[in-house]
Amino acid sequence: MRRTDRRPARRSALFGLGAALVVAGLTACSTTTGTSSASSSTSAGASASGGGALKPVKLQLQWFTQAQFAGYFAAVDQGFYKDAGLDVQILEGGVDIVPQTVLAQGQADYAIAWVPKALASREQGAGITDVAQIFQRSGTLQVSFKDKNITKAADLKGKKVGNWGFGNEFELFAGITKAGLAAGKDLTLVQQQFDMQALLKGDIDAAQAMIYNEYAQVLEAKNAATGALYKPEDFNAIDWNAEGTAMLQDAIWANTEKLSDAAYQDQTVKFIAASLEGWAFCRDNASKCRDIVVAKGSKLGASHQLWQTNEINKLIWPSPKGAGVIDQAAWDQTVKIALEAKNAEGKTVLTKAPEGLAYTNDYVNKAIELLKADGVDVNGTSFAPITVELKEGGA
After folding, report:
1. What value, to the nearest 5°, has the Cα angle with vertex 129 and ends 377 and 272?
2. Overall average pLDDT of the 216-232 stretch
3. CA 24 to CA 9: how far, in whole Å?
4. What whole-number distance in Å separates Cα of residue 70 and Cα of residue 295?
5. What pTM was computed for the model?
6. CATH fold for domain 4-135+249-394
7. DSSP state of 259
8. Which of 65, 309, 319, 358 is deepest in the core (most CB within 10 A)?
C-alpha cells in the first residue's frame, strides 16, 4: 500500500528545497503538487494541489516496457513524481531507439542507458551526464547446458559462443581476454538473436543472457526429455561480476548543457528522488510492481515479470552508499574495459578516456538527503529477494 501518512513529510522535504540546494551550490525553484493518473504519464499541465502546474518531463527507456524499468512506472503509479511536482511521460524504447541520442537531441529530458554505450555516444559528441547509477551490478551472464562444463571464461575455448553485439558484448570479450583466449581463434563467435533459441536448439554452446530476462526464458522452456520445465541445475552461468569484467549498466542520464541551468538542476534532484522512491517501493512490493508493469501492456507474462522485478532488485539492493550513487571503482573498471577490450572486429567501446562531466554524484546525493529526511530506506540493507515460480512461457 502507498504510505499516504508520509505524503505531507515528503512534500516538506521535496518542496522545501531552497536551503538544501543552496548549500550544495544549486539554485532551487518553487514547485507544487498536482494530479496524475495510473498510466505511464500524467496529464500534461495538470493543475497542482498547491495552485501551480506540474512540470512536464519525458523519460526515454532503452528497451520495451518490462520490469527492468519497474521503478519508474511505480513512481508514476504511486504518485511519487506527482508529489515532486513532475508530470512524467515514459517513452518506450526498442531495437531502433538509442536513448542517449534521444536525450542529446532534446527529445527527452532524461534517458536510461548502459554506461559503456552512453560513453561511446559521448565520445561522438552527445552532451550527456550520468546523474544516478541505478544498477550497482551487471546483470549479464553467459549461459550453457551443464554437460558443456563451462563454468568460467577459460572454459569457452573451442566452443561456439553467442553474443548480441551492438555494444552488449564487451564484458564477454574482456572475460575472454583476461582468460588468455583470442576471439575468433580460440573460440567461434556466433551472432545471437535476442532470445535463447540457439542455445535450446543446440546451435551454440553458450548464450548471452540477462539474468532478469533471457535466463528466465530457458527456465520457462520445457525439457523434452522430462516433460517438465528446465531447472537452474540444468545450466551453468558465467557471471561477469565474479569474473571481474563487469561493466555498469542502467543509469539515469541527464543533458549536460542543461545542468548549468538552476531550474533543470532542481528538476533533476526531484526526478532522481522520485525515481529512487519508485525503486524502493518495488524492493518492498515486488508483486505490486509486477502488476503495475503488466498493466502497462508489457508483452511478457506475469511470472516472467515477477522474476524480472526480483532480479532487478538484486542488481540495485543492497546499496551501501545509497541507491543511485556512482561507485568510483565500478566506474573506473567500466572505463578501463571500454578502453581495452576488443570485439571481433578489433574495436573498443572507447578510444580515449571520457572528457568533461561524464558523471556526477551531486544530484543523487541531494536526492538521497531528501529521501532520508522523509524516512525512505535508500540503502536496502535488510533486502531479501523473494522466491519466484516461473511458468511455461513466462505466463
Report:
1. 25
2. 97
3. 21
4. 11
5. 0.90
6. D-Maltodextrin-Binding Protein; domain 2 (3.40.190)
7. G
8. 309
